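U., I forgot to send this yesterday:
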Amino acid sequence: MRLERRAVIFDLDDTLHPRRHFVASGLRAVAVHVASAYDMSRGDALRVLARARRESSGRELQALQEAFGLPADTLPALIAVVRAHVPRLRLSTAARAVLAHLRAAWRLGVVTNGVAEVQARKVAALGLAAHVDCVVYATADGQPGKPDPAPFLDACARLDVAPAQTVFVGDDLRADIAGAAAVGMKTIWIAPPRLRGAGGPDADITVHALDDVPAAARRLLPSRWSPYAA
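Result:
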C-alpha cells in the first residue's frame, strides 16, 4: 500500500507572487528605455511613473507620454518594453516555505494565464522550476486560457494526478476557482484584500494568506493509503 497521490496547483499572479512587482520591474525598464531613446533623465521618468502608480494605476505609460510630450504612437513601443523586458523578481520567503512544506507530500504545479512568453520570463526570474513539478502556460499556442478546462486537465496529466485528487489555489473567482471546480478539483480562494467580506464565493475554502494554504489543502484532501496508488 502507498499514500494516494495528491496535487496542489497554483495560479501565479497575485497568488504565488504579487503582480505589482512585475509591473514595477517593467516600469523601471521603461524608464531606462525612454532615457536612452529620448535623451531624458531616467530619474525624472521614474518619478513620473511612480506618481502615476499612486494616483492613476494602470495609466502610468500614458502619464509618462503626457509629462514629456512623447509622440502619440509611443505607447505600443512602451508596452512592448514592459512585455519583453527580463524582470527582476524574487519569490518571497513565505512562498518558498509553503512550496517546500507541501512538496514533501504533494505534487505541485502552476497554471497561469497571460501572454505565455511574458509569464515564462516571470517563472524563470522567480526560479519556480526548482520548487514545482510543472508549469502550464494556459494561453500558449492561441489557447483561450483559464477558465477553459484544457489547462487544468493538462496540469493534472503532467502531474499524473486525477482532478478529484487535486487542489487548485487562486485569487480569481472566475478564472481560477470556477474553472478548477468545473473539472472536479477542490478549490482554495486567496481572497484579495479588496474583496474580503464581500460575500460567500463558490470556493471550497477561503483563506487570506498563502501561509494558510497547506492546512486548508490537508482539510480538503487528507492523506490516505491506497493499494492502487502508484
